[in-house]
Amino acid sequence: MGQSADVAVGTPTCGTGTLQPALPRHHYVDESSWLLEREQVLMRAWTCVGRLDELGLASKTTGELIPNRVVTVDVLGESVLASVATDGQLHAHYNVCRHRGTQLIPAPADGEASAACEIKSIRCPYHSWSYHLDGRLRSSPLAGDIDAELFSLHPLGADGWGGFLWLHPTPSEAEPLLDSLGVVPERTIRYPLSDLQVGYRATYDVEANWKVIAENYNECYHCGPVHPELSTLVPAFAAGGADLDWAAGIPHREGAWTFTMSGTSNRLPFPELDDDEKVRHKGELVYPNLLLSLSAEHVAAFTLQPLAINRTRIVCELLFERDAVASAGFDPSDAAELWEITNKQDWTICELVQRGMSSRAYDQGWFAPMEDESLAITRWLLPKLSEQSR
């Protein structure tokens, strides 16, 4: 299925000048399209679940994995057991007993992660079948002579990068995580992502499709009218975002060098940054659901959790050096205030987009030249849907 074959009936196909077509309406508002996308694309991709130390699978002091830990997390509506086994290796399994399908560890109903448990095995509360943290069946009381290898828990792919936990719901189809991340690890190599710690966290439930949020993040055509505070800090954003050199980073206004209300901070830049990175801003969108905003002394990480066709939970975490967070005078409010303002502006406009897309008058949007990066979601999604439909 190519892009030209996916144009909605009635949409103008000529006379659009430099405009390029966005995804048709049904990708944002149609329930059947959401279910197809969830099963055929998102369930077949590496998903960022959250920070390993925040989930309790790694030490907040060192960032190292802690053996004999398990936590329940939600992945696209599926309850999943993420664990670190006795040998220190990451694992993940569907939270489903192989005997009668009981949920092994009760998961919070709101999709949040449970508190991490320090245990060496998982016991089903129904008939006491138990499992090692690597998913192998450990015991099946009174069940007779069964082949334990046939009754291991159903696995997901599990890996770590940048201090984040990544899971793949269909491990038989998973490429290695680093291959999936492409050039992102190389472009962020001087930012000590694995060694950073959450200094501020905010969670938002946004009434918009996750793709609306990703597309909004990927362009700055909207920055002038939507983000006056941010545009004052980064004047190039106010100009519509055309011809921005993201590889080198985007300069701040005179005298500013980071994303805070003042544009400065008493926190020092990360030590390995090059000269541009110490005074400029970078951003990365890691499909499908991790947005990284890279400043000289902190990183804003946004994890998108698609909940429905028109609802997305967003976890915003501001990451700082561990020593900075541990210091007596640590105060992230200078960065948090700017991000709170910017985030609320973004979520408000994304909800307005979703409402407009839900109208019968809307059939398809268009991207202007400075929004070319937003087209990336079309380039990423449509080939994957096409591959699954063959």
Give a verbal description of the structure.
Helix content is 23%, strand content 26%. By secondary structure, it is an alpha+beta fold. The strands form 5 sheets. It has a 6-stranded antiparallel sheet. Strands 5-4-3-6 form a 4-stranded antiparallel sheet, with no helix packed on it. Strands 2-11-10 form a 3-stranded antiparallel sheet, with no helix packed on it. Helix 5 crosses helix 10. The longest helix is centred in the last third of the chain and has 25 residues, at 333-357. The protein is globular and about 75 Å long.
Features:
390 residues; alpha+beta; four-stranded antiparallel sheet; disordered N terminus
Instruction: Tell me the structural class.
Output: alpha+beta
* DSSP strand count: 18
Q: Averaging pLDDT over every residue, what do you get?
A: 92
- Percent in helix: 10-25%
Count of separate DSSP helical elements: 11
Spatial order of the strands forming the largest sheet: 12-17-16-15-14-13
- What are the segments in which pLDDT stays under 50 over at least 5 consecutive residues? 1-14
User: Would you list the SSEs in sequence order as H and E?
Assistant: EHHEEEEEEEEEEHHEHHHHEEEEEHHEH
Largest sheet, if any? 6 strands, antiparallel
Distance between the termini: 9 Å
Question: Beta-strand level of the residues, as a percent range?
Answer: 25-35%
Alpha carbon gyration radius? 22 Å
Principal-axes shape call: globular
